[in-house]
Amino acid sequence: MITPAFELTQDLDFLTIIIRVPYARASEFDVYFEGEDFKFYAKPYFLRLTLPGRIVEDGREKASYNTDEGTFTIRLPKEVPGQYFEGLDMLTSLLAPKKSRSAKPLVEEIAASAELSEEEEEEEFDWEIEQTPYEESSESTPPLQHPYGFGNLRSGVFQRLQDELSDVIDIKDPDQTPADERRRRRLEAEAAKFEPDHYLADFFEDEAIQHVLKYKPWWVDAHKKLTALQRESHQEHDTHTFVVFSEEEREQLRKFTNKSYLLDKRSRHHVYLGLIDILLAYCYEICINEGDKNVESSWNIRKLSATLCWLESFTCIHDVLVSFGRRVLCYPLYRHFGLVTRAFSDTVMILQLGKAAVLKCLLDVHKIFRESDPAYILNDLFITDYCIWIQKIKSKKLAALSESLQKTTLTKSHMGLELEELEAAAVLVQEEENALKAAGTVSKQQLLSSESETSDSEESSSTSSSETEGSDSDEQESSTSEDGEINSFQGTLEEERTAPLIDCNGLRQGTNTSALGVSDGTAEASLQSVSLPRKLIEELEMQMHSAMRLSEQPEGLATVSCVSQEQAENPVPKPDRFSEDAAGKGSFLEVSSKPNPLLFLCSTNEDED
User: Fold this and answer.
1) CA distances (Å), 277 to each of 89, 343, 449, 536, in order?
2) What is the mean pLDDT of the chain?
């Protein structure tokens, strides 16, 4: 027989069951319902459901068949109008028979039923109570084997799966490692893995992290709608309205085998706390990838959950949060405390939405692990059992769990990684760097201003230098003209010195033409020596003194004639233009810049004549 796809909805007075039976004969089907039992048969399909409430046959029931879609729609009246049927989307639990049968002895099944009923009758449970570490009993487990998995019900699994062990969990040889030793090794591994540089990099450069924190998964909108309805009417509402299962998820629920779990009080605590741990890791994965799946999704979930990675058995909610926070700051790509608090708030929302939302998340985790080659072992150890178990618990348990989780506080100091000290030290270093940068900026500005002032002064100096150069050029021109005049004057002096003195009648007294001939050797020697013979200088000085004495006489003409006669009687050796030095080489005679008074006297006589 084939179990068909089905779906249940409800209103105040009716329960509606939609059954999809393609290729079935619509004319040959049977429906039976009474109290909490419902049976449907249409060859080759058979469906048996155990309903969460009672239905009644009073003539208002109705059935219809859609040939295009191949679906039966059956409306059944509720025995108590207005009664709320809880868990209509928990398909695996609905498929279970009213009295479960198993291969285990009947006495254990009865004890399990009594234990479950006792659990449900508990009004309150203090989730914050510190539990004592679980001590494995040698009577219930084989020697040297310690249990793990859902409710610590499995052992010896990894002895047969040594090849896949390192790719799935971090602990080595879990069957021979007790719970306390696993916890100690986990804390040591986390402390060794923590990288302060990576954490501080994500702390200061968090643009990408702030971007992913803005993502809103489906449970955010569902929680807003549920909260709004609860404020309007203070009644319970079916979360099926807000949590919708896909056809693939429904098919997976139908494939699950219904089971009964014999859990004592301590094991139930481990199961609830492990559920929080798995949901936290799943919320982190959904947040950083913004709802998409990739090849790292399986690694992220199992690495961040100590329940999955280290087979940890927690004893209180605070330990779960601390473990998750430490692993977020040690292993994934984004290591930011804001992601820890975001996953924390998302997990609270999921638990407040009820077991339908929790089941949808677990089904997604189951799919991720199913598509990852080594991680499928975790489905067999944990996720499949969680998907079946969550359908059977009461919603008030999840509500109490979410309330206790919401009251739990988690700070950076709880991580045990000295995060606050690292951040304070990094802030101080950053402030010092900013101060140095500011000082460098100020000095750079001062340097630029000084350079600008220097350039301005250079421009002004260049302007003044250009003006100076202009004035220098003018001076050079004037000096050049003056030099020309001086040179021409000196040439005149030389001509006068070489020429004979003129008497009063204008006649020359003598000539000396030997001074006009200059040889090449004499010209080269004149460039090397420009000093005058001492004797010639003394004679010139004597002539100047005598001329000064004669010029003091009242009669100018007589003075000139006397001077001429005296010169005729005592001829003074005429200064040659060239003089011979000790080596016998000629040199130019340096003409003094002082004017010769004798020449002025002669010129005066000529002018008078």
Assistant:
1) 24, 10, 62, 124
2) 74
